[in-house]
Amino acid sequence: MTRRGAKQKYREGDWFTVPLRDGRHAIGLIARTTKKSPSILFGYFFGPARGVAPELSDTTDLRPGAAVWVHMFGDVGLHAGTWQVLGQAPDWQRDAWPMPGFVHKDALVPGRYTRRDYPGEDPGADPVESRIGEDEIAGLAEDGLAGSGFVEQRLTKLLT
Hints:
This protein is mostly beta strands and about 160 residues long. It has a domain at about 15-100 and about 145-160. About 10% of the residues lie in helices and about 35% in strands. The protein has two helices and ten strands. The strands form two sheets. A six-stranded mixed beta sheet has the order 5-1-2-3-4-10. It has a four-stranded mixed beta sheet with strand order 8-7-6-9, with no helix packed on it. The longest helix has 11 residues, at about 150-160. The protein is globular and about 45 Å long.
């Protein structure tokens, strides 16, 4: 799925490179796209940080449990071509790369947490929400939508 006018096409199951702020590179995988908001994606991000841009062959052994971060993100880096698509995972199986439940931490009320699940594992859908306790947040991903610059900064910090 691409944005209108995009120079670079991408779809679920595509691996891509993320340039880090220190000149190194990380790897990402588009695990979910959406028809409702084509610029919203969900993906897995991997280290280690590499001194040279990775190639598709560098993704062969990567699995969901090895991700350093999973998050919903915008497609500006892909759209602009600063994030290069490496290619489609040859054995892409959507079910092997699930979209987790997410947690929203209320900034105004400390200790208030909301679980958010996206129907149909669609990152553009309106989430189904339920209040949860702090003991239930383990294993949930942080909710939110990260711009490409934030993704680059976060991965740079995580992989330093």
